[in-house]
C-alpha cells in the first residue's frame, strides 16, 4: 500500500464509497437531525470501526469461509433485513425534533459497528477493496494498513452527513416537516439496502 499507483486509487475508491448515499449515511443524516453532531459521533466512529474491521477480516480470509458456506450469507441477509426494517420503523416514527429532549433511538458505537455486517454497501466496499486494491506482497501488513485507511477516511466522509442533518434540526421541530423528513429517511434507507439484499436471497 506504499505504492502511489495503488494507494491513490484505493483512497479515491474509499472516498467515493463512504461519502455517497447509502444505508450508513442515511442513518447518520437522520441521527444528526435528531441528536446533533456531538451525539452522533459514537455512531460515526462505530461505522468507521465496523468497515475497517470488516475489510481486515475479509482480507485475511473470511471471504473464503463465506464462499464455502452460502447458507451463512443468507442468514446474514435475514438478520440484515430484520434489523433494517427495525431501523426504518424507528426513523419513520421518531417524531419531530425536541431540542429540550435527550432522544436515544439511533444506533451508537456498537450498533454502528455491528450494522456493517448487515449492510450490503459495506460488504460491497470490503469485498471490492480486498479483491482489487490490497497487494499480494506483504499481504499481512497491507491488510491492516488498508483497513486503517478506510476507517480513517470514513470518519469525515460519513460525518458530513451528520452536519447536514444537524443543520436541519430547528427546521424539523415542526411536526409536519419532521414527519415528511422521517418518512423520506426511512424510505432512503430501504431503497439503499433492499436491492442488494434481494440479490443475496435470489443469487
Q: How would you describe this protein?
A:
The model has no long low-confidence stretch (mean pLDDT 80). The chain contains eight helices and no strands. The longest helix has 32 residues, at 37-68. Helix 1 packs parallel to helix 7 and helix 2 (23-35) packs across helix 7. 79% of the residues lie in helices and 0% in strands. It is mainly α and 203 residues long.
Can you lay out the helices and strands and say which pair or pack?
Elements: H1 4-19, H2 23-35, H3 37-68, H4 70-92, H5 109-115, H6 120-132, H7 139-167, H8 175-202
Helix pairs in contact: 1-7, 2-3, 2-7, 2-8, 3-5, 3-6, 3-7, 4-8
- Average pLDDT number: 80
Judged by helices, strands and strand pairing, the structural class is mainly alpha
CA-CA gap between termini: 33 Å
| Overall form | globular
- Give the strand tally: 0
Largest sheet: none
Share of β-strand residues: under 5%
- In percent, how helical is the residue content? over 70%
CA radius of gyration is 17 Å
Low-confidence region ranges: none
Tell me the series of helices and strands, N- to C-terminal.
Answer: HHHHHHHH
Number of helices: 8
